[in-house]
Amino acid sequence: MNINRRDKVRIETTLDGSVTLYLPDIDEHYHSVNGAMQESMHVYINAGLKECKKKCINILEVGFGTGLNAYLSLLYSKENGKKIDYTAIELFPLAEEIIHKLNYASPETFSGELFERLHTSCWNVKEHITPWFDLSKFGYDFTDLNFSFDNTFDVLYFDAFAPDKQPAMWTQDIFDFLHGITAENGILTTYCAKGSVRRMLMSSGYSVQRLPGPPGKREILQAKRK
């Protein structure tokens, strides 16, 4: 299966009215078809970011994709007076014509200009998107694990494609690496609640619990560094 192809990507509307992308080559969606917006809010903002009580928060996202998780985090930073330093890893950025077609909120709350800035900001440097939100994007192949960061992370969004579509992203080495860059009391969240993933997270040193999932999904995983 070729997960590198983006030329055949298709935009689809999910059940909550927000859109997702579909890759026919691997029969995979970027988000839940039951609601892209509500899935991201449930898994990453509510179970992850909101659990961090710090005033200044370092976030790592594995799988920047459409930028939805970053955009929701940006809105959260503004609404709650949190200073967020956001690092995203994405080897295959979306084409500009796709980005322009993504809608991720109602007209009264969606800022197309801010959303576009997340995508057009420079790679491999830190950009100041708002007074409350900095973004650093890196085009790493995360499976190489041959890079380092200047800091640890308080919140980690693990949003790779599903294990059966992208198995190299769901290994013990990956989770051991993530645990090593997680700050004390840091939180990792992922939509995938497979038993094998839970066991690898626990083996790496996290304390893991299953939480109720968003519509269409029974459970998600929240892992905390002990």
Structure notes:
With 226 residues, the chain is of the alpha/beta class. The protein has one domain (36-225): Vaccinia Virus protein VP39 (Rossmann fold, 3-Layer(aba) Sandwich). 25% of the residues lie in helices and 29% in strands. The strands form two sheets. Strands 6-7-5-4-8-9-11-10 form an eight-stranded mixed beta sheet, with helices on both faces. Helix 5 packs across helix 6. It starts with 9 loop residues before the first strand and ends with a strand.
The helix tally amounts to 6
The total strand number stands at 11
What overall geometry do the principal axes of the alpha carbons give? globular
State the distance separating the first and last CA atoms: 37 Å
Question: What is the CATH superfamily?
Answer: Vaccinia Virus protein VP39
Main pleated sheet: 8 strands, mixed
- What's the CATH C level? Alpha Beta
Remind me, CATH topology?
A: Rossmann fold
Mean pLDDT: 92
Strand content: 25-35%
Cross-sheet strand order for the largest sheet: 6-7-5-4-8-9-11-10
Order of helices and strands: EEEHEHEHHEEEHEHEE
**Which architecture does the CATH hierarchy give at level 2?**
3-Layer(aba) Sandwich
Instruction: Kindly name the structural category.
Output: alpha/beta
Q: Runs with pLDDT <50, length 5+? A: none
Indicate the radius of gyration in whole angstroms.
16 Å
What portion of residues is helical?
A: 10-25%
How many domain units?
A: 1
